[in-house]
Amino acid sequence: MAEVIGISGSPRAGGNTDILLNQFLKGITKAGLKTEKIFLRDYSIQPCTGCEQCRKSKRCCRFQDGMQLLYPKIEESKGIIIGSPAYNYNVTPWIKIFIDRLYQYYDYTDDRPRKFSSRLAAQGRKGIVYAVCEQMEISYMGCTLEAMRRPLEDIGYKITCEFPAIGFFERGAILKDDKLLQLALQKGLELGMELKM
After folding, report:
1. Mean pLDDT by 10 residues, the chain (197 residues)
2. Is 7 helix (H, G, I), strand (E, B) or coil?
3. Collapsing DSSP states into helix, strand and coil, what is residue 5?
4. Domain 4-196: which topology?
5. Which residue in 20, 154, 153 sits closest to 85, CA to CA?
6. CB atoms < 10 A from the CB of 196, how many?
């Protein structure tokens, strides 16, 4: 199994989000770790319905869908890189559905409001979140990075880098920015080295 999984939440194959993911994973590979690319657009994943069955069963048994293929990859890897283009100041629907379905990893207390912990916590998990935005002002990215970072932190990942890429829209436009590509590779290498420690 991969030691680091890279997840693209873009619906556009070969676009800027996918290109950046390749760069991060090249850095991970340079650090000597095994990686796997996951394109959420290739998986059929149902949105969480809030049925709460996973609170008792400790796993999502409401749907037999693409997440059942992804849960083992998440559990067996130590690192995650997850990216999304900015959609109306937020993540894409593919990222939102994926994050919501991580709910199965929480344990809750019986008091109100219920406190929670994660069964993935305290395992040395680390990750990078990144986002791509067409506009030149980072404010147009809205909460895209935070919407990925905070849920991952809650389930036990230390996010080592929030990586915004602004001013890119046409497929492959990011290939013209060698400085940004090299920075993504470097951040991937740094994450890989941290995971090896």
Report:
1. 96 97 98 98 97 92 96 97 98 98 94 91 97 96 98 98 97 97 98 95
2. strand
3. strand
4. Rossmann fold (3.40.50)
5. 20
6. 11
